[in-house]
Structures are given as structure tokens and as C-alpha cells.
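Quick illustration, no need to memorize.
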Amino acid sequence: MPSSSANSTEQIGRPVAGQPVEAGPRNTFTNSIRIRLRVPAKLRNLELVLLLFACAIVGSSIALVQLGALGKLDGSVLGIGTALGVLAIGMHVAMRFVAPEADPFILPVITVLNGLGIAEIYRLDISKGLTGWDAAGVRQIAWTAMAMLMALAVILLIRNHRVLQRYRYVAMFVGIVLLLLPMLPVIGQTINGARLWIRIGSFNFQPGELAKIALAIFFAGYLVTARDSLSLMGRKVLWMRFPRGRDLGPILIIWVAAMAVLIFQRDLGTALLYFGLFLVMIYVATGRASWVILGLVLFVGGAIIASQVLSYVGNRFNSWLDAFNPEIYQKVGGSYQLVQGIFGLAHGGLVGTGWGQGRPGIVPLAESDFIIASLGEELGLAGLFAILALYLLFVSRGFRIAFAGQDDFGRLLGVGLSFVIALQVFIVLGGVTRVIPLTGLTTPFLAAGGSSLVANWIIAALLLRLSDSVRNQPRLVVE
């Protein structure tokens, strides 16, 4: 009686009687050898070229600010700018090892935006005579270095974006805690009428900036599991299918949270940002326009009621609708800031006054809330269009990364992170140009503010990690 090993050898080496012979490649030793060729790092090489060009733009901007405002070059600030450029190059070198397939455009784009913001903030410090740690530009440079290091830490620690899906409910809890922190009586701080800050010693931070990242992770993880019930069930009215009453819970919870931010933290922009993020992600997940319609009706209705009940929201609407009314213009908390920003944009015209040649310091909070007006005055409409083109490139690359993914969580996360930047830019630019009421949000990567800068660099790091994971994932080949 032959042994089992002999039978196995016979079945592998020769066809068994009575069974059809299948044509196919033979399992030989040479077929089992896999040769992995070293592919040139084309993406990282392209990123290096663009990054060097970005550093040149930033260095030239700082030099032009000094020549325009001081009439001479100051080597100390240029040296600090060079150090940031070295840090960006170091981040690029690290990505060659930990994220070699990451998108090559994101890092150069945010480097240019961050650098232009530093140049304009530094220009405002010169006009105010501020130096050292009292200067917002110096603090912005320190925050930029910290933000770059934290972004690099995110890329090093998160090797696959799918890991974040496991912690979606942890992200929900963290997001809610971050939203509630400014309401605590000891550490919560009210600045410029909005209670969005916490203060620990001499350290101020806006936790809501990090909350938007946590909520984007939670929304993506939640919608992946609840997408079917949210998209397939419901009653059809006319040409649209509306969700069931039991499925309205998530959108009502987010609406209540947004209204709570509006009422208790006195911040219309943050409420709009959170609610808009959820609406877009639920629309991408389900493909149903009825969710968007319901969400817009809820938010617009809540904002109108708030404008009639809450005085600070009503003042924002009055300053927006009748900004050039002398009574509103001269009123405390009126439209003075908005009108001065519009005058600054008009003074800049098409090509601007040039770095250091305008008067952006006339506008209150020109380095933070109204940095778009400051840049528009000195760079003109052409400069603003170039900045908006950089934002458009950043957001489009984020959407491209999202839609190239094969897992639903990665797609939703990429869309959410990219859209939150796009929506924030629209809210800020719309408020400065009087398209929508002024909200008080900061312009991503440009405006002075450490919490916003850190959060936006983390968003960029997550998109870089997501793009690397998408390019390394197995592809489905159909012959």
C-alpha cells in the first residue's frame, strides 16, 4: 500500500486518472522567484523640487517685507525662516522612509501658505514696533515648528489609516470633551466675545480646532456602519426619499451640538463648520440630497431664531446687512472692523501696494481674523487669487486621495478632512468680503494662532498618510 506522501507526490507530479487536465502555468522553481526592483522615488523627488521652490517664495516674501517696511534686511528673522525651511526639508527626508508614496503636492502647498502668513504677521509686528516674544510673528514661527513636529509624529505613529476606524467612538468622546472644555469655570476663557479658549498658566489653546479632527474620524467610522439604513430606508415624497424618524437621531444630535456651540460659546463660525462637515460626509456616504435639505433647513432656521433671540448673533447680522450705516459703523462691536477690511481690499486693487507698503494695521485683528484683508491690500487681487489657487490645489488633492481609496472609511475620512479646510476658507473669505456674516474663524495655515496651525498641520499629515496607504493598497485587475 503506497504511503500518503507518495500519493501526494503523484497528485502533484502527474494527473490523476479520471480527472481533467487543467491548462495553466507549471509550479516551477523559477516561477516562485519574485524579484523586487527598486523603483525611483519620483514622487519624493518632485516634492523636493516643489519644496525648495516653496522655501524660496517664503524667504523672498520675508526679505521683501523687510525692504518695504524697514528699508534694509534683517538677518535674524531670515535665519529663523531658514530654520523652518530646514525643518520642512527634514520632514520631507523622513517621509522618504515612512511614507514614500505620499502625495507630493500637499507639503509644498502648506509650506507656502504657512510662510506667507508668517511674512504678513511679521509685517504687522514691524508696524506696531513689536519684537521678541511679544511679536506675533515670532510666536507664529514657534508654533509652526511645533506643528511640523506634531505632523511628523502623526505620520510616524499612524502607519495605516484604517487603524483609526477602530477608535471611532473614542474619537467621538474626545471631540465632545474638547468642545466642552471652554465651558469649564476655571480654565475656560472668553476672548473677543467668544468662549472658545482654555487657559492653563500662561498657555492659551483653542480645543475646538482639534475637535474637528476627532469628529471627522467619528463621522467617517459611524457612517460606514450606518450607511445602509440611512440611504435605503425612508418614505418617498415627490422625487426625493426622506429618512425615517428613527434615522433622524444623528443629524438632530449634531444640530443640537451646533446650536449649543452657537448659544453657549457665542461662535457662529464653529457651529457652521461642525454642522457643515457632518452634512457633507452624510451626503457622500448616502448620496441622498434629502439629508442636505433637512440639514440646511435646520441650521438656517436655528440661525434665524438665534439672530432674533441672542443679541450678539443679531449684531452680526445687522453688521452684515447694513455695514455702511454710520450708526452701526460707530457702534461698539459694530461694522468698523468689516468696513476697514473692505477699504483695505479696495486700496490693494489688482496688484496690491507691495509687501510693507500698505496700512493693514488699521484693521483690528489684522493678523488673525482679517489676515485675508491684510494680504489682499499688499498683494492685491492677483495675490489673493494665487493664495486661493493654493487652497484649491490642496483640497483637490485631498478629494483625489479620498476617491482613489478602496475602503469606505478612507474615502469618507479624506473627504471630511479636505472639506473642513475648504469650508473654513469659504467662511472666512465670505465674512471678510461680506458675502456671509462675519464669524471669527481663522484662515487655515495663514492666520496667527497656534491651535489652528497645529490642527491644520495634523490634517495635512493624515492626508499624507492616507495617500501613502492608498497607493500601497492592492489593486483589483480585471482582464
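The first strand starts at residue 188 and ends at 191.
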